[in-house]
Write a structure and sequence with these properties.
By secondary structure, the chain is mainly α. It has one domain (2-442). 67% of the residues lie in helices and 3% in strands. The protein contains 20 helices and four strands. A two-stranded antiparallel ribbon has the order 1-4. Helix 5 packs antiparallel against helix 12 and helix 8 (128-149) packs antiparallel against helix 19. The chain is globular and about 70 Å long. The model has no long low-confidence stretch (mean pLDDT 88).
C-alpha cells in the first residue's frame, strides 16, 4: 500500500484515505440518480444509464487512483449530460445512439490532445473570463432544467415563461430545497444525496396520504416494485459511430470536447490548489496522467452508454478530510459498485427530489462570476452574452459560440486583435462553421 500510493511521502495514512474516499463518494452519490433521470428524457433506459453511470464512476475513479495517484473522483459531468439530452438529442433531433458515438469520438480526440499536449494551447487560447462565464451559464441552465422538470416554471404565450402555480409537487420541491440547503450550510457530509432521500420519502408519504384522502388525483411517486435487479445492458455498446462520422456532427463533437476539456482543467486547478497537490512551479502534480484518465473516462462513457465522464469538483470534500493519494479515489470508485444492482429502488426517486439538487448545482457553478472584472467591458460583455445565452437558448453550444465570437470581434474593433491567441481564431472558424452548416444543408 505504501509503495503503491506513497502515503508517508504525502503525509497521510490508510485510515485517513479511506475516510476521505467515503466523503468524496457521499458528495458525488447524487449522480447515480440524477444522471439516469436526465438521460432518460433523451429516450434512454433509466436502468441502462444507471449501469453505465456506475461503471464510469467506478472504473474511472479507480483508474485515477492507480495510474495518476490522485484523490479525484470521476463521473458523468452535470454540464455535459444537459448538453447531451436537451441540446444534442432533443433540440437537434440526434438519435441517442449517434450522440453516444459523438461522446466516444470526443474522448478519442481528448486522448490525442492529452498525449500531444495540444490541450495546453487550447486552454491558453480561451480567455479566463469566458471560462468563468460558460461555467456559470451551464449552472443556470441546470437550474432552469430543475425548475421546469417539476412545473415551477412553465411556458406562457404572453410572457414566454411564468410561474407554474402552487401544487403538491411545488411545495415538496421548496421543502426539499430548504432541507438540502440547510444541510449544506451546516456542512453535513452527503448533503445532496441526503436531501434527495429525504424529499423522496416525503413525496412517497404525501402520495399515499394524498391519494387516500382524495386531494391528489394521482401519486407524485410510485412505490418501487422491487429492490434488486441484475444490471441492464440496454444502452451498453449501443453507440452508432457510422452516423457520428459526418460533417453535421462536427459542431456537437467540438462542444462535447470543449466542455469536457475546460471542466477538467478548471477542476484540476481548483482542487489541486485546495489540497496543496502542486509541484515546485505551482502546477498540479501528475496533471498529464490525470488528463489522460479523464479522456479515457469520456471514451468509456460513449461505449458504456452515458454522457462524458469527467473529474468532479466534489473531490475537494475528500481532500478537506485529508485525502492526498490515489487510495482516496480507489475507495470512492469501489463504493459505487453495489448500486448497479439497485435500479428498481433508485428508479422510484421522483423529479421533485432531484430538482433541488439541480438548482443547488447551479449555485455552485455560478461562483466563478465573482472572479469577473465587471468594469472591463471588453471582458464583461462577451462573458455576459455567453452566460445568459446558454439558459435562454436552451443550448450550451449557442452560448459558447456567441461568447467566443463577440469576444473576438470586440477585440478586433477596438484595435486589440494582437491580444487574441491564434488558436482562438481557429476555434472561431469552427464556431462560424457550426452556424453556417445547418443553413447550407437546409438549402
Amino acid at each position: 500500500m505504501e509503495k503503491l500510493f506513497r502515503l508517508s511521502e504525502r503525509k497521510t495514512n490508510v485510515r485517513t484515505e479511506v475516510l476521505a474516499g467515503i466523503t468524496t463518494f457521499l458528495t458525488m452519490a447524487y449522480i447515480i440518480v440524477v444522471n439516469p433521470q436526465l438521460l432518460s428524457q433523451a429516450g434512454m433506459s433509466f436502468a441502462g444509464v444507471l449501469f453505465a453511470t456506475i461503471l464510469v464512476c467506478a472504473l474511472s475513479s479507480i483508474f485515477m487512483g492507480l495510474y495518476a495517484n490522485l484523490p479525484y473522483g470521476l463521473a458523468p459531468g452535470m454540464s455535459i449530460n444537459a448538453f447531451f439530452t436537451f441540446t444534442l438529442v432533443i433540440s437537434m433531433d440526434v438519435p441517442w445512439q449517434t450522440a453516444l458515438g459523438a461522446v466516444f469520438v470526443s474522448g478519442i480526440i481528448f486522448i490525442i490532445l492529452s498525449v500531444t499536449k495540444v490541450r495546453t494551447i487550447i486552454v491558453q487560447a480561451v480567455p479566463a473570463s469566458l471560462r468563468y462565464a460558460i461555467a456559470a451559464g451551464i449552472g443556470l441552465f441546470l437550474t432552469l432544467i430543475g425548475l421546469t422538470s417539476i412545473g415551477f416554471i412553465v411556458t406562457n404565450e404572453t410572457t414566454t415563461v411564468s410561474f407554474g402555480g402552487l401544487s403538491a409537487s411545488i411545495v415538496l420541491f421548496v421543502i426539499g430545497l430548504l432541507l438540502t440547503s440547510v444541510l449544506l450550510v451546516k456542512k453535513v457530509r452527503g448533503a445532496l444525496i441526503l436531501g434527495i432521500i429525504g424529499t423522496s420519502v416525503l413525496a412517497a408519504v404525501v402520495s399515499l396520504v394524498g391519494v387516500a384522502a382524495g386531494f391528489l388525483v394521482a401519486p407524485i411517486v410510485s412505490m418501487p416494485k422491487g429492490v434488486f435487479a441484475l444490471p441492464s445492458l440496454e444502452v451498453f455498446f449501443k453507440l452508432d459511430l457510422r452516423a457520428t462520422l459526418t460533417i453535421g456532427m462536427l459542431g456537437p463533437i467540438f462542444t462535447l470536447l470543449f466542455t469536457d476539456l475546460f471542466d477538467s482543467i478548471s477542476t484540476f486547478l481548483g482542487v489541486a490548489q485546495a489540497g496543496g497537490l502542486l509541484d515546485k512551479e505551482g502546477q498540479p502534480i501528475n496533471v498529464g496522467r490525470a488528463m489522460l484518465v479523464d479522456a479515457f473516462s469520456t471514451t468509456f462513457s460513449g461505449l458504456f452508454g452515458t454522457s462524458s465522464g469527467t473529474t468532479y469538483i466534489e473531490s475537494a470534500a475528500g481532500i478537506e478530510e485529508g485525502g492526498r493519494t490515489g487510495l482516496t479515489a480507489v475507495v470512492t470508485g469501489l463504493l459505487f459498485l453495489p448500486f448497479m444492482f439497485l435500479s428498481p429502488l433508485l428508479a422510484f426517486i421522483p423529479a421533485v427530489a432531484t430538482a433541488p439538487v439541480l438548482v443547488l448545482i447551479g449555485v455552485f457553478m455560478a461562483k466563478p462570476l465573482t472572479l469577473l472584472d465587471w468594469k472591463n467591458y471588453e471582458e464583461a460583455v462577451p462573458a455576459f452574452v455567453a452566460a445568459v445565452l446558454i439558459p435562454l437558448t436552451y443550448s450550451i453550444t449557442q452560448g459558447i459560440i456567441w461568447g467566443f465570437l463577440v469576444y473576438t470581434f470586440i477585440k478586433i474593433l477596438v484595435g486589440k486583435a494582437r491580444e487574441i491567441h491564434w488558436m482562438l481564431y481557429i476555434i472561431d472558424a469552427f464556431a462560424i462553421l457550426s452556424l453556417v452548416l445547418p443553413l447550407i444543408q437546409g438549402s
